[in-house]
């Protein structure tokens, strides 16, 4: 991988998984006896990336304790959102401000990541650098989603993301992006979709399709179903 730093977004409340997430942050929920966060870190390690920045806010001390206990053989730094939660855009900007890198890969640990994603992510990275794009999202067809209520957000035309009707592609929770996208922004509560929408309007948001089965912890019901299907 040319990308040297991964960002893992762990600040959310996980309210759709209450009451479990009243005491356990969503990234520390387990599937196959392994936490979502560890799954994610294992994939990052498998990609050959050794630096990870993790943002926290809700129940942050539990995530800090978990990382201290696990002693991953990687350079992991926790950066708290501060006194107010920052949402996806603000959270990412707060993380990249503490790095000298230009290009980053980001992960949402809500997805059950596995090493089967490695080839898709590596191919996505090649596309990103070869075509000198500023943002590319890893997408999956809604037919591959474990949660059949999840509907597509996007379509792809020659790797350019469109929002038409019907949309059949879901954002998996992994993207590669360039720091320069955040130049007009300050660290505050804003969604990454603000940046995506601007890029879509200019035909500058790119996508790469994964053919891996997509498992995502949407809510408590889906979590229970995933546990049954282990």
Give the SSE map:
Blueprint lengths: L4 E6 L19 E2 L2 E2 H11 L4 E6 L3 H11 L4 E6 L6 H10 L6 E5 L10 H13 L4 E7 L13 E3 L2 E3 L6 E10 L13 H10 L4 E5 L9 H9 L2
Parallel strand pairs: 1-4, 1-6, 4-5, 7-11
Antiparallel strand pairs: 2-3, 6-10, 7-10, 8-9
Helix pairs in contact: 3-5
Give a short summary of the structure.
The chain is an alpha/beta fold.
Give an overview in words.
This protein is of the alpha/beta class. It has a single domain (5-228), classed as Spore Coat Polysaccharide Biosynthesis Protein SpsA, Chain A (Alpha-Beta Complex), CATH 3.90.550. The chain is 28% helix and 24% strand. It has six helices and eleven strands. The chain has helices spanning 36-46, 60-70, 87-96, 118-130, 192-201, 220-228, and strands spanning 5-10, 30-31, 34-35, 51-56, 75-80, 103-107, 135-141, 155-157, 160-162, 169-178, 206-210. The strands form three sheets. The protein has a seven-stranded mixed sheet with strand order 5-4-1-6-10-7-11, sandwiched between helices. A two-stranded antiparallel ribbon has the order 2-3. β2 and β3 (34-35) form a beta hairpin. The longest helix is centred in the middle third of the chain and has 13 residues, at 118-130. The radius of gyration is 17 Å and the shape is globular. The model has no long low-confidence stretch (mean pLDDT 95).
Offer a few descriptive terms.
single chain, 230 residues, alpha/beta, Spore Coat Polysaccharide Biosynthesis Protein SpsA, Chain A, two-stranded antiparallel ribbon, 6 helices, globular
């Amino acid at each position: 991988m040319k990308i040297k730093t991964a960002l893992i977004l762990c600040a959310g409340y996980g309210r759709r998984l209450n009451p479990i997430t009243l005491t356990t942050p969503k990234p520390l929920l387990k599937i196959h006896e392994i936490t979502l966060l560890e799954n994610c870190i294992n994939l990052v390690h498998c990609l050959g990336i050794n630096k990870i920045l993790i943002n926290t806010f809700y129940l942050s001390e539990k995530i800090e304790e978990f990382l201290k206990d696990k002693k991953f053989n990687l350079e992991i730094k926790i950066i708290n959102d501060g006194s107010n939660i920052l949402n996806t855009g603000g959270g990412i900007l707060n993380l990249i401000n503490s790095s000298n890198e230009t290009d980053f890969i980001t992960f949402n640990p809500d997805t059950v990541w596995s090493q089967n994603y490695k080839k898709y992510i590596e191919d996505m990275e090649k596309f990103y650098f070869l075509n000198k794009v500023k943002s590319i999202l890893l997408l999956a067809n809604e037919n591959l989603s474990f949660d059949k209520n999840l509907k597509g957000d996007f379509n792809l035309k020659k790797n350019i993301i469109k929002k038409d009707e019907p949309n059949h592609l879901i954002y998996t929770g992994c993207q590669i992006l360039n720091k320069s996208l955040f130049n007009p922004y300050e660290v505050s509560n804003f969604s990454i979709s603000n940046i995506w929408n601007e890029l879509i309007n200019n035909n500058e948001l790119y996508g790469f399709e994964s053919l891996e089965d997509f498992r995502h912890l949407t809510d408590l019901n889906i979590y229970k179903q995933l546990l049954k299907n282990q």
